[in-house]
């Protein structure tokens, strides 16, 4: 919704704005919003992780150069659009990829290079912690990295005074506060949804587990303090302001909300923090987050448990593979068209092929595909994958079924994980919010997702704004909320009221067809396993 430019300029001049900065895996994005939560300026910085000594990492130099560049780009956007210098902001929030391992000593020095969520080096620790806690501890969680370092006998562990995430690190450097939003903290160590703090029983079990090592710290000594959305998390210090805005124009003293992970900001950006709602992000990878009404009956290795930014328990199904194989096939069709001398509009090509899929048989006519560019832990492929297409001689091999099977394959592992929630835990879900590249072609990915989950799927016009907008909304909530106003109420009434979105209900024939496909897919999983072992 566009506003008159003079009203936006008044918001900027009177600091009725909020700034969100999110560190994604390939892009750092800064989004400034006005008093009505509309994005009014944005900046970004491209960056890439690097593999050093078999560790996926980003250097601290990369972190700071990227932060400063994204902020400067956003401030330049403000200047270009409104002819104003940005000197004050109503509230700021920082967000980043969840999990990983950043540890510091008493001199605030980084002890080992930042180990990101992408590393799969903590299998032994994750398995032992699963057994100890009876709670799923994925390899990417901070506590798995810490315990693996202990099991490895790494010398630095005794010197740790602070363990945090990337978002927690940025927040600490900006404000001096060693705190973290509950959503991001829930990817470091399990959270008790009743206390909205680290699970005390599990904390004590971990301390007892490593007691014989005689470290000078207990676990709570080195973890950030947990805060929920809306709580004050410090202010931008003089030093923080200078590090964020190297031009020196930005004032200190700006309130900063609790730092959050990308899962939490995605929930805020899609208005899915309410119980019985969820969101699914489908692009290179795919994950679904379902806000639970109660705790699960037992631990499942296929399901991560994290929280919303205000502390409600969330079941997360995270799959490594989604559209990469599908995109590769579309690229092959592009190459064919170019070889025939045709000009190719990729948006039109994607749209044409996606819509063609809707003409296919509901169960894909006997075709099968595994989109595993990398391993897929949800289906038991921990190390490697092989993109694979299979058909029987009598299968209905046509373009519609071919495209449909690749769309189904993109969501197959996700469906297997979500079926645990629906069939074994009897979780009820009113709605899923869809966002990401799979949903760009109107109605196609949305209807396939509705069939996979057997739940209505809504795509909002604002879903593309992403996590930087989500953390800006959390900063605005902290600054502007009324006494007793919940995050759910703030988002529904002040941000998303009147927002346009399209909802597709599941088609019964599509649901039945996807179920038949997934049974065929699971029975034939040995084919994919053989491909991994022999190709």
UniProtKB/TrEMBL annotation:
- InterPro entries attached to this UniProt entry: ATPase_NBD, FGGY_C, FGGY_Carb_Kinase, FGGY_N
Task: Mention any Pfam family matching this sequence.
Answer: FGGY_N
Domain (Carbohydrate kinase FGGY C-terminal) ranges: 279-477
Q: Name one GO biological process term.
A: carbohydrate metabolic process
Q: Does the keyword Transit peptide apply?
A: no
Which keywords does the record carry?
Kinase, Transferase
Q: Does the keyword Chloroplast apply?
A: no
- Protein family membership: Belongs to the FGGY kinase family.
Task: State what protein this is by name.
Answer: Carbohydrate kinase, FGGY family protein
């Amino acid at each position: 919704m566009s506003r008159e430019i003079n009203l936006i300029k008044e918001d900027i001049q009177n600091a009725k704005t909020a700034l969100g900065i999110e560190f994604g895996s390939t892009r750092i994005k800064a989004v400034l919003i006005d008093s009505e939560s509309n994005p009014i300026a944005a900046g970004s910085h491209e960056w890439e992780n690097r593999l050093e000594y078999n560790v996926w990492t980003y250097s601290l130099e990369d972190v700071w150069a990227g932060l400063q560049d994204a902020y400067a780009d956003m401030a330049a956007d403000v200047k270009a659009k409104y002819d104003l210098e940005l000197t004050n902001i109503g509230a700021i929030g920082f967000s980043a990829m969840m999990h990983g391992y950043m540890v510091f000593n008493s001199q605030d020095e980084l002890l080992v290079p930042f180990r990101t969520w992408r590393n799969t080096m903590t299998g032994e620790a994750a398995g032992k912690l699963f057994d100890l806690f009876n709670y799923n501890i994925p390899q990417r969680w901070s506590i798995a990295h810490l315990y693996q370092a202990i099991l490895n006998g790494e010398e630095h562990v005794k010197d740790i005074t602070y363990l945090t995430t990337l978002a927690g690190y940025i927040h600490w450097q900006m404000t001096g506060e060693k705190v973290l939003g509950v959503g991001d903290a829930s990817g470091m160590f399990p959270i008790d949804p009743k206390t909205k703090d680290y699970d005390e029983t599990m904390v004590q079990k971990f301390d007892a587990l490593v007691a014989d090592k005689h470290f000078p710290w207990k676990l709570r000594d080195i973890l950030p303090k947990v805060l929920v959305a809306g709580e004050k998390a410090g202010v931008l210090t003089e030093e923080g302001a200078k590090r964020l805005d190297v031009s020196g124009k930005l004032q200190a003293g700006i309130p900063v909300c609790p730092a959050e992970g990308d899962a939490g900001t995605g929930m805020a950006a899609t208005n899915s923090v309410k119980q019985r709602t969820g969101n699914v992000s489908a692009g290179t990878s795919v994950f679904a987050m379902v806000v639970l009404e109660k705790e699960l009956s037992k631990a499942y290795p296929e399901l991560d448990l994290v929280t919303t930014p205000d502390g409600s328990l969330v079941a997360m199904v995270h799959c490594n593979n989604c559209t990469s194989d599908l995109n590769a096939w579309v690229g092959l069709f592009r190459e064919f068209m170019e070889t025939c001398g045709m000009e190719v509009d990729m948006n039109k090509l994607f749209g044409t092929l996606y819509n063609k899929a809707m003409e296919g048989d509901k169960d894909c006519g006997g075709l099968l595909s595994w989109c595993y560019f990398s391993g897929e832990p949800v289906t038991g492929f921990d190390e490697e994958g092989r993109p694979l297409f299979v058909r029987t001689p009598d299968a209905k091999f046509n373009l519609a079924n071919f495209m449909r099977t690749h769309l189904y394959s993109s969501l197959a592992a996700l469906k297997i994980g979500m079926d645990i929630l629906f069939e074994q835990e009897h979780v009820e879900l009113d709605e899923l919010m869809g966002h990401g590249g799979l949903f760009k072609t109107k109605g196609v990915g949305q209807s396939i997702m509705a069939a996979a989950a057997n739940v209505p799927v809504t795509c909002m016009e604002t879903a593309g704004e992403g996590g930087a907008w989500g953390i800006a909304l959390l900063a605005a909530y902290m600054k502007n909320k009324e006494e007793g106003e919940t995050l759910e109420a703030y988002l529904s009434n002040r941000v998303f009221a009147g927002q346009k979105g399209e909802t597709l209900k599941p088609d019964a024939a599509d649901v039945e067809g996807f179920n038949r496909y997934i049974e065929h897919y699971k029975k034939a999983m040995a084919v994919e396993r053989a491909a991994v072992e022999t190709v």
